[in-house]
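pasting for ref
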Amino acid sequence: MATNGNAALRAARQALGYRSQAALADALTEAARAIGLRIEVAARTVRRWESTDPPWPHPEHAAALEALFKRPITELGFTPPWPNGTDGRSPREPLSTNGNQKAGRYRRVVGGVELPAAVAKNYVAITVAHRGMYWSLPAKQLQRSVSDHARLGADLIPQIDVRATTTLARAVSESALLAGRLEFFDLQQPEEAQASFVLALQAAHEAADTLLGCAVLAHMAFIPAFSGEVKRAEEARERVRAARAFARRGEGNHELTAWLDAVEAEVETRFGNTRQALSLIRHAEQSYAQHDPQDRPSPEWLDWFSPTRLAGFKANTLISAGDGRLALETLRQVLDELPAESVKQRSVYLADAAAACVLDKLPEQACRFLEDALDGIGEYWYATTLDRIKAVRQDLRKWDSLPEVRALDERLYDWHTTVNSLSG
């Protein structure tokens, strides 16, 4: 019997009033932007989706489809590509956190046997362990483990006891978010980080966890912000707006609001809007002043932010604004208060202190801070720190004849730093 293509998607399109495939493509592009994804959906892509044998959509396209139609893409005529996804067994839906059926993706049980809920419990334990390991293990080693763990979890979601779906999906989202953080900040792999963040966003959707979705979207803003491309400014801002919408929906507390202010301040600083950035920092400080961790505790995964780290954001913005004196004063306090285990973050602040010294024409002191920062990345490699060290070294060119600057070059271009910087 002849078929008429993907009738489910075509009917859903027409039900929403989109008369043409091009109109749906435009609507999906807008839906993607509303959730922080910078993609363009073409009419020819929709044409393929409405064909007789539609391909499984790319993860970002899938997120846009689900955001627009408010239903899982398996209800739109798409067949999952995972094992036994086309064996004719009846799909099943995950449970929401309140025990009711929710509009997550349909699942198929591999081999007809569900994995026990204990698998999710064990998976969560590893996710929590990785969270703590971030502060002490080398990034390259940890990234491999965390990334594999996130992919494993994504594979397990269609197989797990439906009652454990939300728990597992939430842990998968956190693992993929951590993988993206490692890839972006520690290893400077923005394309890999983007893929990890998309997986984290999908898993947060599966768990119906809007605060995790907020965290992922805010991290996704860093990729265009750090690209150095002015034309990507609106892309970064759009993702911050999406993150704030998710935070409001999830009733995020004052600490989460302060972190979003700091993220937006970083974005605006990257695009030269230091006045607006400093205003955001002030608002973040006010939010923190209202934060009561006993009344409204933060999610356990929000371990990368604190009043001390907010001050670090502030100092970086002050440097961009040209206020070296206040930046250095702020950073000295930050370095005094920073926990001993925060080695990677300490190295960043040391590099920022060097930048503040350059603004105040203190080259010898800047070199001492940079030497300490190099000691830090010698212990725990952090690509973000090396970027900042090299930026300060460029600013030290007028003092190239100083013995301290020549000694700095010997450290900056030794075997360890050179090999690590070029090996990714």
